[in-house]
Amino acid sequence: MLTRLHAKDNEEAYMCLIDIAKAYPSMLHPAITYALQAIGTPQHLIEMIRDIYRRSTLQYGSFVCSFERGVKGGCPLSPSLFVLVYEAFHHTLATEFPELVV
User: Fold this and answer.
1) Are strands 57-60 and 63-66 parallel, antiparallel or unpaired?
2) Residue 15 β-bridge partners
3) Domain that holds residue 44
4) Between vectors from CA 62 to CA 71 and to CA 30, what angle results, nearest 5°?
5) What distance in Å separates the CA atoms of residue 85 and residue 5, rounded to the nearest whole number?
6) In this structure, is residue 1 part of a structural domain?
7) Residues 6+ apart with CB under 8 A from 80
8) Residue 63 has pLDDT above 90, yes or no
9) Where in the chain does DSSP place strands (E)?
10) Any idea where the Reverse transcriptase domain is (predicted)?
11) pLDDT tens, 29-61?
12) What's the structural domain count of the chain?
């Protein structure tokens, strides 16, 4: 949510609020890959992590589907992956819009 504020001397200011309450299920898998590449993670480790999620499926009777986003709740990797993706997002925002980031 982006909110417009009035700072000192009647200057406009903006505040961005990010709801991270359901962050784990909403993380896109390409964002995880991007964040891992951005910090120089060796490709074989990236592939190993991608395989964890590529092979995750849900089956209900004969219906089978795979997931394109989300990390596993309770997985020891999930908190670290969340922080990496969040930091990559912040870095991209700061790089693309340096005047907006404090």
Assistant:
1) antiparallel
2) 3
3) 21-96
4) 25
5) 28
6) no
7) none
8) yes
9) 2-6, 12-16, 57-60, 63-66
10) 7-96
11) 999 999 999 999 999 999 999 998 888 888 899
12) 1
